[in-house]
Amino acid sequence: MDRPAPRRVTIVDVARHAQVSTTAVSKVLRNAYGASPAMRLKVQQAIDDLGYRPNAAARGLRGQTYTIGVMLPELRNLFFADILDGITAQLGDSVYQVLLAPGCNGEKAEARVIDAMVDRSMDGLILIAPVSAKARLTEVARHTPTVVVGRHGSSTAYDTVTDDDIAGAALVVDHLVGLGHRRIAHIEHHETDRVRLAEMPNTQRANGYRQAMTAHGLEAEIDVASTSYTQAGGYLGAQQLLARPNPPTAIFAGADVVALGAMEAIAEAGLTIPGDISLAGYDNSALAAFGPISLTSVDQDGRQMGADAARLLVDRIGQRDRRTAQITLSPTLVTRRTTAALP
Amino acid sequence: MDRPAPRRVTIVDVARHAQVSTTAVSKVLRNAYGASPAMRLKVQQAIDDLGYRPNAAARGLRGQTYTIGVMLPELRNLFFADILDGITAQLGDSVYQVLLAPGCNGEKAEARVIDAMVDRSMDGLILIAPVSAKARLTEVARHTPTVVVGRHGSSTAYDTVTDDDIAGAALVVDHLVGLGHRRIAHIEHHETDRVRLAEMPNTQRANGYRQAMTAHGLEAEIDVASTSYTQAGGYLGAQQLLARPNPPTAIFAGADVVALGAMEAIAEAGLTIPGDISLAGYDNSALAAFGPISLTSVDQDGRQMGADAARLLVDRIGQRDRRTAQITLSPTLVTRRTTAALP
DNA sequence: AAACATTTGGAAAACGTTACCCACATCACC
DNA sequence: GGTGATGTGGGTAACGTTTTCCAAATGTTT
User: Fold this and answer.
1) Closest approach of chain A CAs to the CA of B321, in angstroms?
2) What average pLDDT does range A243-267 have in this prediction?
3) Which InterPro entries does the entry link to (chains A, B) (predicted)?
4) Which of these ranges, A74-83, A180-189, A216-225, B333-342, has the smallest mean pLDDT?
5) Using CB atoms within 10 A of its CB, is residue A201 exposed (0-12), middle (13-18) or buried (19+)?
C-alpha cells in the first residue's frame, strides 16, 4: 500500500502504445494541424488506456502551461471572491487552470507573488487591485498577457476592467439627498502614494462623493474622515465624524467592512441606525445582504467583472498584439434598512 | 514602450557572465555542496547583475518546483482563510511559494484540481477538508507529499491535522447544560457517502453531540435536524426543530453559517435570542465575533492548524519515508451573547 | 502524364535546469 | 614520496514536451 508510485506515464509511452511518433501524440493533445481523424482516434484510445496526463513543467519549457494566475490582495473580502467566481465560471470549461496566490497586501508581497507567477511561466495574469507602480505592471504585461481589475487608468500594455466608482459614489449621495439628508459625510481610505493616487478606486469614490455633493450644491457640507478600508478604519472614522461640533446625519462608507466598523461606533455612541443616522457601504458583499445587518450598499457585480477579465485575458493570450481594451461597468445601488428619510 | 520583452536571462547567461559553468551556478542557487565561498560570491554577483530568476518549469522537469499547492473547498468560509493564514505565515520565509486553487466543492472539481496540481509537479499538497475517496488520497500522497487538514481518520500515506470535533461538540453541550438547558437540539450536515461518513468533521460533531448528551443523562432529549452546512441549511433546520411538538430551548448549529440561517428562522418565528432560545455555532469565524451577531461558538484556531500542516509538509518533503503523523488540536469555547441561562 | 498543391506522419533539435559522474588539486598521514 | 581523503569545479546526459523542419503519399490541375 505504501510502495512508491510507479513512474508516471509520458508521451513516449503513449506513442509506443499507439505505435505512432511522439509528435503525433503531441498534435492530438493540442488539437494541432496535421493529424488525420483515424490518427486522433488511435492516439486518444492510447491516452485513455494508459491514463496519460501531460506534464505541465515540460510543456511550460516549450509551449504553454495552460495556467492563469490570479492575484488578489485579500481573501476575506467577499467582493474579491465574487470576482473570482466570475473568473472561474468563465474559465471553467476552458483548457486553463486558475491558480491564485494567497493574500498579498503591500507592494513587496505583491512583487514577490507576481515574480513567482512569471517564474512559473503562467500563460496569463489577472491582477486584482494591484498597488505596484504602473511601470512595473507595464513591464510584467510586456512578457505575460495581463488584465488589471479594479484600478483606473488605462495602459497600452494591459487590459483593464473597472467599476465606475465615481458614478457609484454619486448613486449613494443622490439617494441620501433624496431622503432629505444634507450633512452627508464620507469615510475614505487614506492613500499616501502620489502616483497611485488617481488610479485607486478609493480615490475615485472620494472624488465622486465630492463631485456629487457639489452637484447638489452641498459643497459646504463636504466632510471626510480619512482612515482605511478596514473594520477598524470604519470604527475610527465614524468616531471622528460623530465627535464633530455638527455631526452628520448620514455616513457614506467607502466599503462594506468600513460600514461594519462604523455600525459599532454608532451603536457605542448610543445612536440608532437609521433613526439617528443613515449609513451606506460599497461592494454589496454578502455581509451587507445578511438579514440582521441589511446595509444599503453599492453593487459592483464582481462576477461580471471577473468574467470580463477572464474573457479579455484569453482573448489576449490568443492575440497578443491587439489593442488594449478598457471595460467599465456601471454600479447599481441596493437600498436596505440602514438608510431612511430624515424625520 | 510596448516593444516585446527581451529573452529572459537564463542560467547560461549567468554562467558566462561569472565565467564559470552552469553546474556551479546551479549549485549556488540550491545551496548545494561543492561550491567554495569565493565561487558563491562571484556567482551571486552575476545573478544580481543580470537580475536572473530561475525558470520554474525547467526546474520542475528535473528537480523541485518550490511550489506548494493548497486546495480548499470554499473561499468564503472564513475559517479556511484562517488556516491559509497559518500556512502562509509558516511558509512566508521559506523557499516555497503557496498557490491555491479556487473553490472546489464536490468530488469532481476536487479531482480536477488535485490532478492539475500533480500535473504541475508541485512539491507538496495541503488538502483542506477533501471529500475524495480515501483510496484516491492515498494514491496522490504516494507520489506527492500530502497533508490532509480537517478530516479524521489516519493514513500511512499522508499526515493529518484535525480539530477534536467530538470534544468541541461536548464543550457546547456542557456549556448549555450548565446554563440549565435540557432540550438541546443539533443541526447537522447530512452525509450520504458511507465511506466518508466517519472521517468528516460534521459526523464527528454530531457524534460528539450525542455522546455528550448521553453523558449528561439526556439521551431522551437528543434531537437532530439533518440538513447541510449552509445558511439555507440552518434556516431549514431551525424551522424543522421549532415545529416540533416540544421544541428545543437551545440549538447547537454545526457551523457558524448554519447558526446564521437559524437566527433568521428564529426571528421569523417571533422568538428572541437568547431570551427564548439559545444558539451556538462552530468555527468562531469573524462573523461570530462581529458585534451585532455575537455568536457563542467553538474556536478551532485555524492559524495553528495551518501552521502545523505547513510544518508537517515541509518536513515530509525533506524526508519522504518518515512515519506519518496525526496532529489533533483541542478546540475552545467562546461564549457570547446568543447563549443564556434558562429563566 | 507531368507538375504542383495538400495532407499525413515522423526525426530531431530545442527549452532551462539538475543529477550524476569524473578530473584535478590540495592536504594530511603513515 | 606514496596513499587516501577531501574539496572544488565542470562535462554531459537526462527530464517530457513542443516546434521546426522534411519526406512521402495522395490529390488536383494543366
Assistant:
1) 10
2) 93
3) HTH_LacI (IPR000843), LacI/GalR-like_sensor (IPR046335), Lambda_DNA-bd_dom_sf (IPR010982), Peripla_BP_I (IPR028082)
4) A74-83
5) buried
**Domains in chain B: boundaries:** 11-54, 67-163+302-329, 165-300
Domain A67-163+302-328 maps to which CATH number in 3.40.50.300, 3.60.60.20, 3.40.50.2300, 1.10.3670.10? 3.40.50.2300
pLDDT tens sequence across B194-242? 666 778 889 999 999 999 999 999 999 999 999 998 888 999 999 999 9
Question: Residue A311 belongs to what H/E stretch?
Answer: helix A302-318
- The confidence score (pLDDT) of residue A195 equals 63
> Under CATH, domain B11-54 is a member of which superfamily?
lambda repressor-like DNA-binding domains (1.10.260.40)
Q: What is the pLDDT of residues A22-71, one digit of tens each?
A: 999 999 999 888 888 889 999 999 999 999 999 999 999 988 999 999 99
**A341: pLDDT confidence band, cut at 50, 70 and 90?**
very high
Is strand D less than 7 A from the beta carbon of A63? Answer: yes
A81 close contact with B: CB closer than 8 A:
yes
Of A2, A57, A67, which is closest to B61 when you measure between CB atoms?
A57
Q: Summarize the confidence of residues B7-31 as an average pLDDT.
A: 92
Please check whether residue A282 is in contact with residue A307, taking contact to mean a CB–CB distance below 8 angstroms: no
Q: Does B143 touch chain A (CB under 8 A)?
A: yes
CATH classification (class only), B67-163+302-329: alpha beta
Spacing of A157 CA from D18 C1' in Å: 27
Q: Does A325 touch chain B (CB under 8 A)?
A: no
- Asked if A59 and A66 count as a contact pair (C-beta separation under 8 A), the reply is yes
Query: Assign residue A21 a region: left if phi > 0, alpha if psi is -120 to 50, beta otherwise?
Result: beta
Q: How far apart are CA B172 and CA A299, in angstroms?
A: 38
Q: What integer best gives the mean pLDDT of chain A?
A: 91
B9, amino acid identity: V
A/B interface, count of CB pairs below 8 Å: 139
CA A17 to C1' D23, whole Å: 24
Q: Judge whether A1 is closer than 8 Å to chain B, CB to CB.
A: yes
C1' of D3 to CA of B38 (Å): 29
- Expressed in angstroms, the distance from the first to the final Cα of chain B is 74
Indicate whether B169 pLDDT > 50: yes
Judge whether B61 is closer than 8 Å to chain A, CB to CB.
Answer: yes
Do the Cβ atoms of A116 and B97 come within 8 Å?
yes
Q: Closest residue of B to A69, CA-based?
A: B99
List of chain A residues whose C-beta atoms are within 8 Å of the C-beta of residue B262? none
CATH of domain A165-300: 3.40.50.2300
pLDDT at A286: 76
SS3 A252: strand
Q: Do B78 and B297 form a contact (C-beta atoms < 8 A)?
A: no
Name which of B119, B264, B287 is nearest A56 (Cβ-Cβ). Answer: B119
Domains A67-163+302-328 and A165-300 share a fold: yes
What pLDDT was estimated at residue A1? 46
Residue B57 contacts A where some CB pair is shorter than 8 Å: yes
Q: Beta strands of B36-105 (E only): which ranges?
A: 67-71, 97-101
Question: How many CB atoms neighbour CB A341 within 10 A?
Answer: 11
Residue A175 pLDDT: 96
Cell of A65: 502551461
- Do residues B252 and B231 lie in contact, with contact meaning Cβ atoms separated by under 8 Å? no
- List pLDDT tens digits, range A225-236: 999 988 899 999
Nucleotides of C under 7 A from a protein CB: 7-12, 14-21
